[in-house]
């Protein structure tokens, strides 16, 4: 039980990577506040299975005017978080020369600006208590770029820069800030990729398979636990060796 007695806030926790992280954290003893734009259809079952250690908050992080108040309420309800996982994110892909300013800005708002606001509010309390781990969900796209994803790459690259900057600012208060950069992970998003394109991408991965949400959850558990107590400001690529 690596997270026994810990409290965690996980954004984008309704499905995919966020859900896998929430489930893994609860299994390791944490009490989790999950945040998402929609309440999962099986929420009551999830809460029962978690033994009451899952709390749900329905909120739209794309509405930047309400982010501070929403997260502040979560901090007060929980009594303060030991762990924050900034996982919420969206895509609006298109070639750069066809991408609308609205689509560019919306991705930046949700993936970068909202993540910064959430980290700022939760981080203030961590600083006060002189303890905490913040984990930002970046992407290998934020490191290497990807055609058709100028907005997404910018948001994830920016999140990596924010991660490193925050890590420098709060380290003296025993608060750690790291990022995970997933590669090709099986998800609703990847299911929409044509099979031929999917196979071509898999050929670039030395492990010759896509990752699973549980692979990211394992990395998040490590960065949330005391096993990584001397690690901060790092970007952990979980990509099957795609960019060795």
UniProtKB/TrEMBL annotation:
Look up the record and name the pathway of this protein: Lipid metabolism; fatty acid biosynthesis
GO MF annotation list: 3-oxoacyl-[acyl-carrier-protein] reductase (NADPH) activity; NAD binding
Q: Which residues bind NADP(+)?
A: 12-15, 37, 87, 152-156, 185
Instruction: State which residue ranges cross the membrane.
Output: none
Q: Does the keyword Transmembrane apply?
A: no
Q: Which UniProt keywords are present, listed alphabetically?
A: Fatty acid biosynthesis, Fatty acid metabolism, Lipid biosynthesis, Lipid metabolism, NADP, Oxidoreductase
Q: Which residues form the active site?
A: 152 (proton acceptor)
Question: Its catalytic activity?
Answer: a (3R)-hydroxyacyl-[ACP] + NADP(+) = a 3-oxoacyl-[ACP] + NADPH + H(+)
Any idea where the Ketoreductase domain is? Answer: 6-188
Broadest EC class? oxidoreductase
* One GO BP annotation of this record: fatty acid biosynthetic process
Checking CDD domains in the record gives: BKR_SDR_c
The EC number(s) given in the record are: 1.1.1.100
Q: One Pfam family, please name it.
A: adh_short_C2
Relate the assembly described in the record: Homotetramer.
Hey, which family's this protein in?
Answer: Belongs to the short-chain dehydrogenases/reductases (SDR) family.
PANTHER family under this entry?
3-OXOACYL-(ACYL-CARRIER-PROTEIN) REDUCTASE, 3-OXOACYL-[ACYL-CARRIER-PROTEIN] REDUCTASE FABG
Per the entry, what this protein does is: Catalyzes the NADPH-dependent reduction of beta-ketoacyl-ACP substrates to beta-hydroxyacyl-ACP products, the first reductive step in the elongation cycle of fatty acid biosynthesis.
The entry's protein name is 3-oxoacyl-[acyl-carrier-protein] reductase
Q: Which gene encodes it?
A: fabG
